[in-house]
Amino acid sequence: MRFRRIVYVIAVLFLGPASTLATIFPAEAGFPALLLFEALMSVMTYPSGFVASLIGGGLVFSGIVTPIEAIVMTTPIFAALGYLQWFWLFPRLYGGERRALSDLAQRP
User: Fold this and answer.
1) Rounded to an integer, what distance in angstroms lies between the CA atom of residue 16 and that of residue 73?
2) Contact 49/75 with Cβ under 8 angstroms?
3) Positive/negative CA dihedral, 67, 43, 76, 6
């Protein structure tokens, strides 16, 4: 289980900088790179990744940051939200009866 956690976090953290490579070619490639990044991250971190998408989109559309800066800023947010969701929250909510009973046994 620990290996899957490490692979997931590395994949999310790798996709952020990798999606900025699309901006090397034409000058207008920043926004399509942002859309591609948002689509990939939304799939990998759905539903909690929606929060990071709102943060990044809000910053870009308000003119505070460029699309590339939004990718760099939201990549760690996507990684943290996805990790918490897939490896902490969902196993505790839907982990099955065995995990629920063991959690109850450990409580005072």
Assistant:
1) 9
2) no
3) negative
DSSP notation for 66-93: -HHHHHHHHHHHHHHHHHHIIIIIHHHH
Summarize pLDDT for 16-66 with one digit per residue, the tens: 777 766 666 565 666 776 777 778 887 888 888 888 888 888 998 999 998
CB atoms near residue 44 (< 10 Å): 16
d(CA 75, CA 30): 15
Integer angstrom CA distances of residue 106 from 4, 93, 102, 103: 26, 16, 6, 5
Q: Six-digit token pair at 85?
A: 């969701």
Report CA torsion sign: 63, 67, 73, 79.
Answer: positive
What are the tokens at 81? 């939200």
Q: Is the full-model pTM beyond 0.70?
A: yes
Q: What's the N-to-C CA distance of the chain in angstroms?
A: 27
What type of residue sits at position 82?
G
Question: What tokens appear for 103 in the block?
Answer: 């959690």
